[in-house]
Every structure is written in structure tokens, then in C-alpha cells.
Design goal:
- The structure is a single chain.
- This protein has 13 helices and four strands.
- With about 290 residues, it is of the alpha+beta class.
- A four-stranded antiparallel beta sheet has the order 2-3-1-4, with helices on one face.
- It is globular.
């Protein structure tokens, strides 16, 4: 099943999260962190996107990217593919390096830029790493010393602090009291404005359903295409029921649309929604994942 295109318009800001396949520690060695950053640098030069923050952990990475005319999908396709090829060649291995599709959350730059930068820089602190903000593999030190690495576009964010590093550092050290309300929530504000800016690529009701399907499949470790397959496998049935349950919370997604994606009749969807076991088993966890 083909994925719907992500929203794209020039100046769109995305919080991107990439993870190792099966949460493997693909960045555990510093040489791989450096290799990934060098790959980003290569395509940043080619596609002229802006990178406001990053952090490289052992099994995942966070990036804060503002795109130009080239869509994020093209940018990330190049970065992920080239790194995968390099990683497999140098490590003498084959197969997937990253876990399914990267996550990308469209964010409001005016409202969330600085909080996103802080959230990303505080990732090592939340992970219990001793160095915290001074972690070697984040962009925080680039903000303190512009000569370091020269990968991040620090000028605009620092300008919001009138280039006062002391105020910037104080802000970066502030405890995040409402972390779930920052970048992890799916962006929905001003969606009508974005539809006008890019009608063909905007996130419709159908793509909202596609997002639910993608996230459930990732959480349950199944392929997206299996959702529409003719099968009675228990894990697929469970996934469909959970998707139907989550989708039913969106009044704009109809049972007919859900049935169409599952390749079943509408009565089958009604039966899925009448059962309680999957809701109690997965509902709370998946709702937390979706926000």
C-alpha cells in the first residue's frame, strides 16, 4: 500500500526521529555518529535545508529540519539510503539499518522552535548521561562555539536571544514541565492554511488514517501492506482492531474508509469496534504513542 506524501511547503519545520532497526545500537560507536553527521552535511549542502538542532544517541537520532524547495522525503531518502549503504559496506553486513520509516512531526516554528531545540538538547539528560547538555554528539556545543562542526544553523535561534549566550544557556537548562505538549504531539494547528499552501500534498482525513496505520504497524512490528491482505492471522486481526479503535476517535474518519483500507466490508469493522479486549490491552499505550 503506497504511503501518502507528507505535507510539504517551503519553510516547513520538522522534528525528525530515526531509529535503528529493531532498536539496534547502530550509532553505538562514535565513528557511526560521525558518519551520519557527515552524510547530513553532504545533503544539507546539496539541498539547502536548515538544521537547527540534532542529537545522536546510540540507537536513535533527533533532527530539527526546516526544508527549502526540496521536500523532506527527498532529503531523508538520500541521507538514510547513503548511510545504510556505507554502514553495510564498512560493517560487512546486509539488510535494513533503520527501523521502517523515519518519524517526522510537522511543527509550528513560531511557537515551538526554541522548545524543540531545548527538547532535543536535553535528550542526553533525560537518558541519564553524565555530561547532560555537554554531551559530545549534540548541537548544543555548536551554539556555544560557532566554530565547532559548523553543521547547525544557529544564527536565527541565537538571534531570538539577542545573541546573549548566557540567556540561551539559562533557557536550555530550564526543566521541561510540559514535555508532552511540545514536539511529540501531531501538528494540527493552522492545517487549513497549509492546505491552501499545498493542496496536493496536504494531510487529508485519509492520511490521518494512514498515520494511525503506520504507527500501529510499527508498534506491533508488522508490515503496513499486511493490513489489507486476505489473512486470518491473529496479529493482523489484532492490529486491524486497534487501528479501527483509534481511527473511530476521529469523527472525520468513517467506518467505510476504514473498511476500504482493510479490504473488508463495513460490517467487519463494526464487529471490530464492538469488542473490548484489544482496547484494554493496547488502547492507553497507543493513545500515548499517537500524541
Amino acid at each position: 500500500m503506497a504511503r501518502k506524501p507528507r505535507i510539504h511547503f517551503e519553510g516547513a519545520l520538522y522534528h525528525v526521529i530515526v531509529r535503528g532497526n529493531n532498536r539496534e545500537f547502530i550509532f553505538k560507536e562514535d565513528k557511526w555518529k560521525l558518519e551520519y553527521l557527515e552524510t547530513i552535511k553532504r545533503y544539507k549542502s546539496k539541498y539547502k535545508f536548515k538544521l537547527y538542532a540534532y542529537v545522536m544517541m546510540d540507537n536513535h537520532a533527533h533532527l530539527l529540519i526546516e526544508v527549502n524547495h526540496v521536500p523532506l522525503s527527498k532529503v531523508m531518502q538520500c541521507i538514510q539510503q547513503v548511510f545504510t549503504q556505507t554502514y553495510n559496506r564498512k560493517a560487512s553486513r546486509t539488510g535494513h539499518v533503520f527501523g521502517q520509516r523515519y518519524k517526522a512531526i510537522l511543527c509550528d516554528k513560531d511557537q515551538y522552535l526554541l522548545m524543540l531545540i531545548r527538547y532535543i538538547h536535553q535528550n542526553p539528560t533525560r537518558a541519564g548521561i553524565v555530561n547532560g547538555l555537554n554531551y559530545n554528539w549534540s548541537s548544543y556545543n555548536e551554539y556555544l562555539d560557532k566554530t565547532k562542526n559548523n553543521l547547525c544553523d544557529v544564527e536565527f535561534p541565537l538571534g531570538l536571544f539577542k545573541n546573549r549566550l548566557d540567556i540561551f544557556v539559562e533557557f536550555m537548562n530550564e526543566e521541561e514541565t510540559e514535555i508532552k505538549k511540545i514536539p511529540i504531539r501531531k501538528f494540527s494547528e493552522n492545517i487549513d492554511e497549509y492546505k491552501e499552501m499545498n493542496k496536493e500534498n496536504c494531510r487529508s482525513t485519509d492520511s490521518d488514517l494512514a498515520t494511525i496505520i503506520e504507527k500501529v504497524c510499527e508498534a506491533l512490528d508488522i508490515e503496513v501492506d499486511q493490513i489489507s491482505a486476505k489473512t486470518r492471522k491473529r496479529n493482523i486481526a489484532n492490529a486491524r482492531q486497534l487501528i479501527a479503535f483509534l481511527a473511530s476517535k476521529n469523527p472525520e474518519i468513517t467506518q467505510k474508509e476504514i473498511a476500504g483500507r482493510f479490504n473488508v466490508n463495513q460490517n467487519s469493522v463494526s464487529m471490530m469496534l464492538s469488542k473490548e479486549d484489544i482496547r484494554s490491552k493496547y488502547g492507553k499505550e497507543m493513545f500515548e504513542l499517537m500524541i
